[in-house]
């Protein structure tokens, strides 16, 4: 949702000042505070290595700041009719009243995959970015299934309360399938089993 709201309001070429501070907790892309990066590069830093510092940067640069960005996330949730999701932060860290469901997160994934830029980013295994100030950021995906036959994305997640999470786009003979897994102890292994089950039990003419 952070990426969706960012693309609703930013031009991908807009420059952002990297923000740090206490909100940048958890996994990071190791962005340098006060560096200048484009929105496009912030989205890569957000979605490839799960950089929470990129999420905070996108939110803090938003008109009205972090709280207004989170507010827009919930406005978008309501507009999509997703009744079992509420956001209180932009990076998905455990917080009271911050929640979603398998159905809702699958619908959000579908929304993201309808955006060509996001669809390209979430299929990226590794990329090196260079900021306006010359800082170099090598990014490697957290999605270990990328590169497997038919796997085209999209996003990993983990928190102590949510456990291992993974939303995966698989293409089977031109038919896209989204597999969403929350609360797992082996997200990659379990997703592979689900992929194999789909391949075994479904066919398309």
TrEMBL record:
Signal peptide: none annotated. One of its GO terms (molecular function) is serine-type D-Ala-D-Ala carboxypeptidase activity. The keyword Cell wall biogenesis/degradation applies. Keywords: Cell shape, Cell wall biogenesis/degradation, Hydrolase, Peptidoglycan synthesis, Signal. GO terms for biological process: cell wall organization; peptidoglycan biosynthetic process; proteolysis; regulation of cell shape. The keyword Acetylation does not apply. Substrate binds at residue 155. Residues 31-184 form the Peptidase S11 D-alanyl-D-alanine carboxypeptidase A N-terminal domain. Belongs to the peptidase S11 family. This is Peptidase S11 D-alanyl-D-alanine carboxypeptidase A N-terminal domain-containing protein.
